[in-house]
Inverse folding.
């Protein structure tokens, strides 16, 4: 099936109509998930892997699971405080996406011989990611729609998009296929966040002061998590700096600098 038009290429009016649609979401994910089992080709055989590489990959997947759990719990909580029904519908599709992401990552860990994925996540998770998750869910619980959308659909999704896409380029075949499938969803989630906040910032410019404060609060957690993960997947220093710039650029597009 031919890949559908990138959501970022749509006009503003088309974007608002399509990004919230459950029907368009279903057509989109069906296009790249059809025929797969837990995010990869059925009966796929793992590449040979050393014990060191396996342990490193498991630790990385543990951190990916923390991020996906944060997005799953965040998106589900945001449905309650969403300002309109279209946003609620979009977030319901994101909940399904994040649930699938978490499931395929946990299954990948099981494939690698992890008997207790939840226990490994608790043991190996980055403290920075755990702290980010806690702060995101606080923003959701406080009912702060704009700050929570910034943290979840711009900051977290941009981090995952940059890291997952880079990791997929050099990962083993099964992990690579799983990550490429996740990345396709992340682009849609980022598009929603940027569009939602962009419209609100244009209507209420003073909102930027509060959002910039949230961004500054979270930056060190995000950049620390990015540094740790990028090092684990074999990204050199120069390219780690490139990934950090990619993350920061996603926030700058909203005019939030500093």
């Amino acid at each position: 099936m031919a890949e559908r038009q990138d959501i970022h290429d749509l006009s503003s009016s088309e974007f608002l109509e399509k990004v919230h649609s459950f029907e368009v979401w279903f057509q989109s994910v069906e296009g790249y998930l059809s025929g797969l089992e837990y995010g990869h080709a059925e009966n796929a055989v793992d590449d040979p892997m050393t014990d060191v590489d396996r342990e490193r990959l498991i630790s990385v997947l543990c951190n990916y699971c923390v991020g996906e759990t944060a997005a799953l719990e965040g998106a589900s909580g945001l449905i309650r405080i969403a300002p309109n029904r279209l946003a609620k519908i979009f977030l319901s599709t994101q909940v399904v996406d994040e649930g699938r992401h978490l499931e395929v990552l946990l299954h990948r860990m099981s494939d690698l011989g992890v008997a207790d994925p939840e226990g490994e996540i608790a043991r190996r998770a980055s403290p920075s990611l755990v702290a980010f998750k806690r702060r995101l869910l606080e923003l959701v619980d406080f009912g702060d729609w704009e700050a929570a959308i910034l943290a979840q659909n711009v900051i977290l999704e941009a981090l995952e998009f940059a890291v997952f896409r880079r990791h997929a380029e050099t990962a083993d075949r099964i992990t690579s296929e799983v990550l490429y499938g996740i990345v396709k969803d992340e682009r849609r989630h980022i598009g929603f966040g940027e569009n939602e906040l962009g419209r609100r910032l244009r209507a209420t410019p003073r909102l930027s002061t509060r959002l910039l404060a949230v961004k500054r609060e979270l930056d060190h957690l995000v950049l620390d998590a990015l540094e740790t993960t990028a090092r684990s997947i074999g990204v050199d220093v120069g390219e780690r700096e490139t990934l950090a710039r990619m993350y920061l650029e996603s926030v700058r597009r909203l005019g939030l600098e500093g």
Summary: The beta strands are 36-37, 40-41. The domain at 11-29+50-252 is CATH 1.20.1260.10 (Ferritin). Residues 51-81 form the longest helix (31 residues). The two ends are 43 Å apart (CA to CA).
